[in-house]
Structures are given as C-alpha cells and as structure tokens.
Design a protein that fits this description.
extended, mainly beta, seven-stranded antiparallel beta sheet
Length: about 140
C-alpha cells in the first residue's frame, strides 16, 4: 500500500479586520459536570454545562508596509469588548472574543501569528460560495 501525501495552501481567515493565512487550526471544548453519590452507592450527574469553545488559528500575517501593525491592532482588540465572526473552511463561528494571541517577527515580510478566540455559540455551516458575506445574525 502506498501512502499519498497531499498538501494545501494556507487558508485566508478574516479575524478582527486582518487576514491571517491559516496553516494550522485547533478547536477544543469541554463540559463541566457535577456528580453526587446516590443512596445505592452509585454516582449520578446532577448538573452539566458546556464551556466556551477555544479556536486557535496559526499562520502568517502579511503586510508590505508595516507587518508589526498587526501587534498593535490585535492587542487593542484583546482589550476591547468587541465580538467577531470567523469563517474557516466552511464552518462559521459567531460572537467570538479574542482570548490570546502571539506574534513573532522573524525579519521577513510577514509575521508568524497565532490567535485564539472563544465562543459559547454553536458552529454553523457556511456555504463555500458565500464570498465575503457576513454570517452575523
């Protein structure tokens, strides 16, 4: 059996007014539960609720004039109460808040960046042919 290696180009993702060419995407979420013992010695779940999902986009930010302007803009976004919508490969994420970012200037015409957003909303499918249309409700 032969394993075929495929590659794809970085996916442009709009976050807070800038474009990150995403090379890596990570999503994580969890649920909290409360358990209590029953009279018979078994456990039962008494409360359960989901935590906000964490979505991390890692890649490159290009700017021919001032690549470090991203750092100033994303830091201002982090300190604001603004929420954003993000679309990545057909999945829409709404009411996202920027939780953290990192940026690395390696002396090239781009910044290596990672942006983590959180949302308590469910994910929605977004048609590929939607173009630049907004997914905000």
């Amino acid at each position: 059996m032969i394993t075929e290696f495929n590659s794809r180009e970085a996916v442009p993702v709009e976050i807070a007014g800038f474009t990150l060419y995403c090379e890596k995407f990570t999503a994580s979420a969890s649920r909290s539960v409360s358990e209590k013992p029953t009279v018979s010695g078994e456990n039962t779940v008494t409360e359960s609720f989901p935590h906000a999902a964490r979505l991390t986009f890692t890649g490159r930010i290009y700017s021919e004039t001032d690549p470090l302007s991203f750092v100033m803009r994303i830091n201002n976004c982090l300190h604001s109460d603004a929420v954003y919508s993000v679309v990545y490969r057909g999945l829409g994420f709404i009411n996202c808040t920027i939780q953290e970012y990192s940026a690395e200037d390696c002396g090239e015409d781009f910044i290596r960046a990672s942006v983590t957003v959180i949302t308590s909303e469910t994910f929605i499918p977004v048609p590929e042919n939607m173009g630049g249309a907004s997914i905000d409700g």
